[in-house]
Amino acid sequence: MRHRRWVRWFAAGIAACLAVPAGAQDPAGDCISNTSQQGVLYQGLVDGIARDIEAPRKAGDHDKVLKLAAQAQDTRLCKIPAAIAIAQAEALVAIEQVCDAAQPLEQFFAAAAPGDKDYAQAERLYDEVREARDAGQCIKPVGGVALAAPKAEAAPSHDDVAPAAEGAPDDGSQRDLYRGGELNEGRMAFDSGNYARAAELFGIVIQQAPESFEGYARRAQANARLGRTDAAVADYAKAVELAPTRGYLVIDFARFLTAANRPQDALALYDGYLQRFPTDVQVLQERAGVRLKSGLLDLALQDYGKAIELAPGNTRLRLLRAFLYHDNGRFKDAVADYTAAIRAGASGADVHYRRGLAYYALNRSEEAIADLDAAIAANPSLAAAYTARGALHQLRGDGAAAIADFSRVIDLKPESADAYLDRGKQYQRQLDAAAAINDFSSVLRLDPGNLEALKGRAMLYQQQGNYANALDDLTQIINRDYIDGDAYARRGWLYYAWKDYKRAMDDFDKALVIDPSGTQAQLGRQAVIEAIAAAEKAAAEAAKRR
To answer: Is residue 24 predicted with pLDDT exceeding 90?
Structure first.
């Protein structure tokens, strides 16, 4: 079934490719243009994936969705169909890999337009990604080794951060008026999920006390849960009009507008409030988040900068800006904020771990290792710190120390395929083939489709002369629908060694379709042509002698 699907996708790509003149191929870059000759070839394949991904998406088969999406991403096309991108993002969020959903969501927004199918769902998913980033959970991997960031502590509440706005009355002044009546009943109905009843009760509160900002605010929340967007907006607007000094109302309203795909309205709301109350640190922080989502990175950093000026001792703000710098590749600035936060009292494994990653990205290995040592001393069970330190030891040529760290990760997380893979690759570098094969086999036990482990083990088997096992691994790579010209080329050479020239030529041809510049496939194809010619010549001479 898998083979037939691959043939169908591949055939569609070939058919499309024939319609494109050779001169349309774009120069190589970070991605393959969809309009280049090679891109059109792959377009047929990804269009097939876009159709096939709908069934597992609807069935909630996240593993299948992610495998299909990975095949599409392996093409390196610049534009991936929106159906694939949204399905991949949904699956990643469903399995709690929220940070990894950012890339497919960005691909979705590049391929779709507001109002298109799934656009609102993509917006909601992107909100979850932003929240994870704001909480410091999304640290990009560096150095080729996946480095997971532990979850940050919850951000402080508005009351903890924001100074009281000028002229704000006591928060309990209106709540006490209705504590025993409809307001309290409405809260109970809301908490129990009966939003229609809650909206009705809050409406009675408004009738009884038209100046009750809380009645409007509470009804806005109920209307929002009921999907009554216009009614919710009207109620929030009235609540803010009645209580313009209350930053938490502005935040709640702006969050609703952002979720309703109205970020510009949310920004306008924040702008108006901050013109009156420019020292509200929490609102500055919230506006930074909306600006970031809107692609206004520099303005978001300005908001964080002003908030830090107003609350210089707030380590959480320093860390949030550090995470933002880190996530956008500004590692020097990230280090400065991490260091300021540590000097202001931030401590523990997490902050040293994150600063260690930033030093790692800056190629400052001594400082990185020192921070990772501190993180491990504070939390000896922090597996991610051992992974990062092991990668640094690897880069510094200290193989024994790298293996010790990767082994510690395996002790802490015995079901981690990545840990076995990291150690297996180090054993391979040290030419310890038996240990490397053992680790790659452990990876494949935990993650049967792992491409790196299959390729690494196949190469080692081939070097050992164990061609049968090498052929099995290479065939697994090909049968799992990986678009991998190297696997075809390597298998072609195995067939060549066994004088199975037809199969060898087929594999070399497929490798060259995937990568026309593949040297091994080009050499292999020429070797097959020469071997066939030599065999035919030898046969002709033998016939003459007879």
So the answer is: no
